[in-house]
Amino acid sequence: MGFLADALARVQPSATIAVTNKARELKAAGRDVIGLGAGEPDFDTPENIKAAAIKAINDGKTKYTAVDGIPELKAAIAEKFKRENGLTYETNQITVGTGGKQVLYNALVATINPGDEVIIPTPYWVSYPDMVLLAGGEPVIVEADKSTFKITPEALDAAITSRTKWLIFNSPSNPSGAAYTEAELKALCNVLVKHPHVWIMTDDMYEHLVYDDFRFTTPAQVEPSLYDRTLTVNGVSKAYSMTGWRIGYAGGPADLIKAMAKVQSQSTSNPNSIAQWAAVEAISGTQDFIPKNNEIFKARRDLVVSMLNQANGITCPVPEGAFYVFPSCAGTIGKTTPSGKVIENDEDFVTELLETEGVAVVHGSAFGLGPNFRISYATSTEALEEACTRIQRFCGNLK
Question: Which of the residues 88, 173, 206, 353 has the least number of beta carbons within 10 Å of its own beta carbon?
Fold first, then answer.
């Protein structure tokens, strides 16, 4: 009998973290590496949010809090949902965790029984399937259209069985940046209305990062009849440049929120008290910096899409949101590098790109859809331009 849990054999380490760590190792060894693997804004946390954290420290707000969030933060989140999404939640319907990842995991652990199925559209954030597996469930992968990165209502309907418990829905998407229009989302919701045993877990982490007049909507907003079986998940990491503060949150049915708090009470207990007070200011304070940051992100997106589409064998769609592009490298498969290595799949492509040109990206098959790769453009314009120049050179040298 082995010492480690059998469940660990079902899951893989995070591919995005692995790429970031590899880039760091190469940099430490003296290599000139541009890391485009991490989904982390390069902007600093806004001053008003940092000031709120400093005030919390000075005011002695450094003790244990309620397990799933201080009342002030829950009230701010409830007001945010009402103001921005037209959703009404009482504070007992709000949970706060140590990042959105913990909130998602708490929900799965609190609800999944052996044999329960969770529908996950591709391309998906790398952690979704493994969190389902750790919770004892079975991921059911539904492949999206390879040009739009969106699933159809027909594909969703076909994936639902009597054992389906959840649909995990992420828009705008990590890794593709694709976002569902209100009409596209309504069509998916119409399918879910027909299957009252299926719950919806929405990952809205990139809600505020949308471009070109795209209007964000979330399932319980588009189809109110789904409200009682929807967990609407969000957080402060991306739009507020607060990745390291580790605050995620969700609104949902009170019984589910209570069950999630029970899980959290026996794992981490409360999120960091200082970060919670900073999150109150982030959600309730000025939002003026968000459109300014989005203009910078949009310019970076347009640069990256343009330059990648000039690389031999690369095709890059224009994403509606987030800060990722998910180009296809299908045109490079079967080609040979100057060193004699044949590119057989997207993992070969990103490995050779890192070794040859010092550009760290994540292979698309880690997100369930290939041959593609993910680039995060949440870094400086200069670094992105240099990275895309190197990708062009790498592809140009393939034979």
Answer: 88
- Topology adopted by domain 6-44+289-397: Aspartate Aminotransferase, domain 1 (3.90.1150)
Contact yes or no for 39/360 (Cβ under 8 A): no
CA angle 39, 45, 50 (to 5 degrees): 145
On the 0-12 / 13-18 / 19+ scale of CB atoms within 10 A, 260 is buried
Contacts of 206 (CB under 8 A, 6+ apart): 171, 172, 173, 174, 179, 238, 239, 321, 322, 323
How many CB atoms lie under 10 A from the CB of residue 84?
17
Q: Which CATH class is domain 63-284?
A: alpha beta
Residue type, 10: R
CA distances from 114 to 117, 120, 137, 270 (A): 9, 17, 6, 28
DSSP state of 201: E
Give the pLDDT score at 364: 96
Given the DSSP bridges, would you call strands 230-235 and 94-97 parallel, antiparallel or unpaired?
unpaired
Residue ranges covered by each domain of the chain? 6-44+289-397, 63-284
Distance, C-alpha 380 to centroid of its chain: 20
**What average pLDDT does range 174-195 have in this prediction?**
98
User: Rounded to two decimals, what is the model's pTM?
Assistant: 0.95
DSSP assignment string, 360-380: E-EEGGGGT--SBEEEE--S-
CB count within 10 Å of CB 7 equals: 11
pLDDT at residue 178, rounded to an integer: 98
